[in-house]
Amino acid sequence: TGLDAAVELSGPSFAALGRFAAALGLAAPQGLAVAPYSISGRTRRLAAGFELDPLRAEARGIRLLLEGIVGAGAGLRGTDLRLAVEAPDAARLAELTGVALPNGALEIRGHLTRGDRGFASDGIAIAIGDARAQLAGTLGERPDFEGTDLRLDISVPDLAAVLGPHTGWEKLPAEPFELSLELAGSAGQITSKSFSARLGSNDLSGRLAARFEGRPQVEADLHSQRLDLSALFADAGGASTNESSTLAAARQPARER
User: Fold this and answer.
1) How many CA atoms lie within 13 A of 70 on its CB side?
2) Under 8 Å CB-to-CB from 214, ≥6 apart: which residues?
3) What pLDDT score does 242 carry?
4) Which of 59, 71, 161, 201 is least crowded, fewest Cβ atoms below 10 Å from its Cβ?
5) How far, rounded to the nearest angstrom, does the alpha carbon of residue 56 sit from its chain's CA centroid?
6) What pLDDT is attached to residue 75?
7) What is the H or E stretch that residue 161 is in?
8) Cα distance between residue 20 and residue 28, in whole Å
């Protein structure tokens, strides 16, 4: 179409941007804050989609940068975007969007593409305070996510402090939490190539699998060197074991909703 336009947009109410979603036929986001904002950048229409060169936005000290292409193909095929988000406190983003987030300085950086196999990234890093998450790989197409090959790493210094106030889970342990997970998707199932988790001095590792063909099923073969359930779930009256233990392979139908 030959579109090549500079964008300069500002206003007193971030919530008013919901009108643009409605104009595009999208559901208007709820809970957006009344706060001054500014948006600037340049966009061009290319064969693959819309190029952002780059697009910058700011509100309440939260800064967003998007650079690359938003694909025009089905399911956003052709997308190739780099993004960066910074905020002095994630609570500001929570106030702006109405989405509950932990307190702490926020930083998100990453690269996202969309091809025929699904969405892919060579790395998306998220930091909120001392909590860290890293995601990389490919998420295959729905409904069976065939071709998925993802790695997720999470590190949280205090699980109760990070998640408790924002989820309503008041009895989470005030312990460091770490998770490492590699997922692979093939026809009809997703399996973990590796899985390990640690909460305080407790650990769990092994294999997980979810099958989607026929009646959904979940399989697990998990092992632990130390799993003290009474300490983790004291109010639930759980049992305790400090010796090396194995959770035998189990197969059970996924809970139906």
Assistant:
1) 11
2) none
3) 43
4) 201
5) 22
6) 86
7) helix 159-167
8) 8
Number of H helices, E strands in the chain: 4, 14
CA distance 29 to 22: 9
How buried is residue 42: exposed, middle or buried, by Cβ count under 10 Å (0-12/13-18/19+)? middle
What's the CA gap between 45 and 1, in Å, rounded?
7
Q: Do 155 and 120 contact (CB within 8 A), yes or no?
A: no
CB 125 within 8 A of CB 119: no
Of the chain, the end-to-end C-alpha distance in Å amounts to 46
Cα–Cα distance, 150 to 136 (Å, whole number)? 6
- CB 206, CB 191: distance < 8 Å: no
Give the global pTM: 0.78
- Using an 8 Å Cβ cutoff, are 43 and 3 in contact? yes
For the chain, the residue count is 257
pLDDT tens, residue by residue, 101-118: 888 899 999 999 999 889
Using CA atoms, how far apart are residues 174 and 162, in angstroms rounded to an integer?
9
Q: From CA 78, how far away is CA 68, in angstroms rounded?
A: 10
Collapsing DSSP to helix, strand or coil, 237 comes out as coil
Decide: helix, strand or coil at residue 176.
coil
Q: Is the pLDDT of residue 167 over 80?
A: no
Using CA atoms, how far residue 19 sits from 16, 25, 30, 96, 174, in Å, is 6, 10, 11, 16, 42
The DSSP 8-state label assigned to residue 90 in this structure reads H
Quick one: tokens of 29? 């986001």
CB 189 within 8 A of CB 208: no
Residues facing 67 on adjacent strands: 82
